[in-house]
Specification:
223 residues; alpha+beta; Arc Repressor Mutant, subunit A; 3 domains; 10 helices; elongated
């Protein structure tokens, strides 16, 4: 007869990266689901947020990535435990909120229903930005900051799409002709160019090639 103990369960979780619920029940002497979950409460573990929560892993704070996620093959875990808590945390921690698509790509599962439920329960807010719903923190001050950052990102992305090789070449040529020029000076020198090269274009090129520190020791060089 198998002697049931939390130590046996801990040993099982320590011996494998991911453990199936049926293996846990077997290690506990073919225990019932109720008994199994009673023993699970005694050890640190996380249940997969996909595969219907069928898989378990030892909870170790060091195993999660910067998003608080951990995956083994097709099985995904979160430091938060539940997918709902994970989605809410990721939205609240984000500097620019999250879209449903961004969360789906990060978590590799569908989250639309969870997001709508979180909004309905006032745990998250959402706003239509550039024809896409962005999910945001429920607190006004944080939500406004996230919205501002999201709109800034969209503005930069739109400018990025306008940057052609010709614009990049003109900015670099201005720096070659007038070494040490700062961004404002390059913008001034390119005034009247056809087609127009705006300050936003020059800023993107400066950022892309780290030209702000051109010529400084250890900085980039055009030579």
């Amino acid at each position: 007869m198998t002697i049931r103990s939390s130590e046996r369960l801990q040993a099982l979780l320590d011996s494998q990266i991911v453990v199936d619920l049926s293996d846990i029940r077997l290690a506990l002497g073919d225990a019932s689901r109720a008994t199994t979950f009673r023993y699970l409460k005694k050890v640190p573990y996380r249940r997969s947020y996909n595969h219907n929560g069928r898989y378990y892993t030892r909870h170790d704070p060091t195993k999660y990535d910067r998003f608080g996620l951990f995956s083994h093959k097709s099985v995904h875990f979160s430091r938060d435990g539940s997918l709902t808590s994970t989605v809410i945390r990721l939205v609240q921690e984000s500097t620019a909120g999250k879209t449903q698509r961004e969360l789906r790509e990060l978590l590799r599962v569908r989250v639309q229903v969870l997001l709508l439920e979180a909004v309905r329960r006032d745990r998250l807010d959402r706003e239509l930005v550039d024809k896409v719903f962005v999910y945001l923190h429920h607190e006004d001050s944080v939500r406004h900051a996230q919205l501002t950052r999201r709109r800034e990102q969209i503005a930069v992305q739109k400018v990025e799409t306008e940057i052609t090789d010709a614009i990049v070449i003109e900015v670099l040529l201005a720096l070659i002709r007038y070494p040490g020029s700062q961004l404002v000076e390059v913008v001034r020198r390119l005034q009247g160019h056809s087609p127009p090269i705006r300050a936003e274009h020059v800023r993107v090129v400066f950022d892309r090639f780290d030209l702000e520190h051109l010529g400084e020791k250890g900085g980039p060089s055009l030579r």
